[in-house]
Amino acid sequence: MSLPGLAPLFDPEQFRASGHALIDMLAEQLASELSGDAGLIQWQPPLEAEQAWQETMPEHPELRPEDFADWIRQAILPRNLAMHHPHSMAHQAAPPLPMAALSDLVAALSNQAMAVYEAGPAATLIERQVIRWLNTLIGWPEGSGVLTSGGSQANLTALLAARQKAGNSIWNKGIDTAPRLRILTSALSHYSISRAAGIMGLGTEAVLPVAVDAEGKMSTEALRQAYDMCTARQETVMAVVATAGCTATGSIDPLQAIGEYCRSHGLWMHVDAAHGASALLSADHRKKLEGMALADSVTWDAHKLLYMPATVSAVLFRDAASSYSAFSQDASYLFHEDDDIEAMGFNTSRRTLECTKRMMGLKLLAAFKLYGRQGIATLIEHVFSLAGQFAGLVAKTQHFSLLMLPQTNIVCFRYLGNAALDMATLNALQADIRKRLLQQGLFHLSQVNIDSHIWLRCTFMNPYTQPSHQRALLESIRLIGDSLLIQSA
Description:
alpha/beta
């Protein structure tokens, strides 16, 4: 078929040539980042950086396909944060497995919509396979669930199901028909829990923070007190949200004790294990998650410790029927009255906020086939050990303070300086140190505020981070910190 003027847009040979050039260039970039030879970041304030992105939309082609890889190399990659660099330690985003990234290319080009089975047959079956694997790791051989675009959406989906159980007329008649609903969760829970409450019309004040102990774990006594208070006020606790690997400190709540309490009081237990669930793969660390199988629902992010390209998360349900209760929707152009119950389970959009959804499961399927559970577990165990090594280094280095021993791969610490400092000065010092490290392209850390104390925070995701890099980080912090204190004196 002749398509004058359109054929170049879909030219397979052009795709082949540009693809080979792109893969070669990205492989070189990957090697450069892993070795630490590439720059970590070329920092520019956002308003200044945006000046390079003020072009008008091209009316005609201005880039040749044969120059595409060079354009990516020159115009895009230098403006990126180098995620595979051993000094990238800020967040829980993975330096993704390269072969998983190739799987995403397959998913992008095949572009399976996945709203219903016929729009993505292989994609649907792959997702169901991956969901079965994750449920089995939790201890739910009959569990169910779907993949979602991120943990925030997974948490929202789980809480929608919990809300439906608490007031089953809410979907059609609104929250006015239900009792006053409350969500109990750790004071260190992710903001997506309160955001979900706002989205659901409950109001963010419906989320009641439960106190944590010195290790950042939810206090079961404080949970009991919070529940009793809600009961006394004739409020309905629609869910208790435990956290396995909280964002601030990586702490894991006492899942067994919380699960038993929820079971004894008929409460929906959701575990936001976006970060920590991957420890289930490891024989060394899965005991930290004992009690997770008592939950009703679990959130699990694969773009964290399963090392997938963002985003791919799972919302998992112990009871398969619960996976249908979050959304109660009919759409005749997708769902047909003659679909039998068994077939409905293959139409994933019945159970997720998304209609069109990319083929997220392929990269997970490929990773497990390529490396097996043991291969990925070894990766998780290694970065957990990196966190333990760094915590030990901080603890024995003069003028540094460690918040707590790491339970996953997150370490919170701060630089104290060589003189007594008041709290405001100490807090400002941590924030200024982090800024200087980033602006100078030395290290990428994050910071966290816990009980009005600012701590520097490292998330060890990169297996190429070495003890020498950790020592260099502390030395850089010391030099910058001392310089800042001299300037402010």
